[in-house]
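Narrative of accomplishments. A recurring question from our advisory board has been how the design workflow behaves on a single, concrete structure rather than in aggregate. To address it, we present the structure tokens for one chain from the evaluation set, followed by the sequence designed for it. No filtering or post-editing was applied between the two.
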């Protein structure tokens, strides 16, 4: 898979490292010359110095032949322009980071494949940590109408000794982390104290699940 990442900051670099590990073909476009040089030295990827909203730089990255273009700069205007140009050459998957939550509706109207609101996601993660110690928000799904989160099963939990099938009421247990091992649960498997469950639930059911855990 060929991926063009516009923005080589901490998030862009972290994503690039993950993709490189998976043997994907990665191109990074970074506006800051010194940062671009540092990335070129550190990563097994083509790093281009330039403005990602410049069509000529995008062409140098061969973006029209990429599978995905990811706009990860700290500037929403730049990210929007990148996604619009990717869409104009029919890139199958264009993904953007949004820095200002108020801009989400603007991006949605352009038909961007995936919009990741980093500010909202971070705020929700902190809020969930305050509300329920031991609960970790993984992702919002379904246009923000569902949550995927991890939670540790306490001694007092209503889940202890229940089977997956009996416990699931309006939510799904996707996986269990138990004894240092990742487990894909069977319907008949019992839940133990100390299990870390990955749960997917509609927002309206999240509070109910939290109380049970």
């Amino acid at each position: 898979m060929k991926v063009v990442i516009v923005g080589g900051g901490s998030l862009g670099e972290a994503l690039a490292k993950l993709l490189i590990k998976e043997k994907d073909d990665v191109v990074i476009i970074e506006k800051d010359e010194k940062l671009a040089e540092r990335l070129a030295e550190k990563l097994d990827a083509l790093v281009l110095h330039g403005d990602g909203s410049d069509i000529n730089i995008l062409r140098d990255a061969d973006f029209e032949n990429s599978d995905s273009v990811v706009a990860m700069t700290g500037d929403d205007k730049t990210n929007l322009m990148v996604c619009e140009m990717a869409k104009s050459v029919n890139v199958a998957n264009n993904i953007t980071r949004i820095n200002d939550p108020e801009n989400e509706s603007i991006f949605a109207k352009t038909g961007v494949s995936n919009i990741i609101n980093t500010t909202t996601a971070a705020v929700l993660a902190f809020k969930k940590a305050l509300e329920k110690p031991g609960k970790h928000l993984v992702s919002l799904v379904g246009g923000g109408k569902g949550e995927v989160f991890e939670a540790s099963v306490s001694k007092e939990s209503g889940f202890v000794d229940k089977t997956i099938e009996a416990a699931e009421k309006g939510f799904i247990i996707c996986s269990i982390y138990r004894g240092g091992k990742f487990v894909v649960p069977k319907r008949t498997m019992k839940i133990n104290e100390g299990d870390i469950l990955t749960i997917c639930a509609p927002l309206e059911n999240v509070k109910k699940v939290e109380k049970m855990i």
